[in-house]
Amino acid sequence: MAGMTDQPGAAARRLVLASQSPARLGLLRQAGLAPEVVVSGVDEDAITADSPAELARVLAEAKADAVAARPETAGALVIGCDSVLELDGRALGKPADAEDATARWKSMRGRSGVLQTGHCVIDTANGGRRVSATASTTVRFGEPSDAEIAAYVASGEPLYVAGAFTLDGRSAPFIDGIDGDPGNVIGLSLPLLRRLLAEVDVAITDLWA
Fold first, then answer.
1. What is the pTM of this model?
2. What is the mean predicted confidence (pLDDT) over 115-120?
3. Interacting residues of 205 by C-beta distance below 8 A, sequence separation 6+
4. Under a CB-based contact definition with an 8 Å cutoff, are residues 5 and 128 in contact?
């Protein structure tokens, strides 16, 4: 495929993550990549879409577009991601405050939701080629007690993550299971990223640091 190379010693493409999420950065690093982080500054509240899955994708595109347009990212591969939890047809992002996080958990417990993560890849060195898609993972929530919910909210963790929970943090004991890619719930689907990179003629193995 044009643009892909297996030549030993070939210089890896510069990779930029248009997200300040430490979880996404961690996933990419664990997969052998070494992205730089450039925060997009996009006003997420100003963006709307017809469905939670579409909203996640549009938000990811907006973040990637904003970072790809900056002079300092010229020539880089830019990855934008954004996640929302779909529950009762609504898109739930980060809770507004502790009260919101508490109410969110009381409404989620014993139920299932779909974690939607939008992904966008822009190759600024190849005419600005852009591809995007959304990955979906069903999350089955357990039934934490009111006291457990209060303790979790007091930890502060749910205030900084989409859906007010994480799969790899303090709320892990309150998640009974998932159906789909666990990385997608943490913040980024590596299998989907591999497919999107292939669409812009980049092999993910060529990005290994």
1. 0.92
2. 98
3. none
4. no
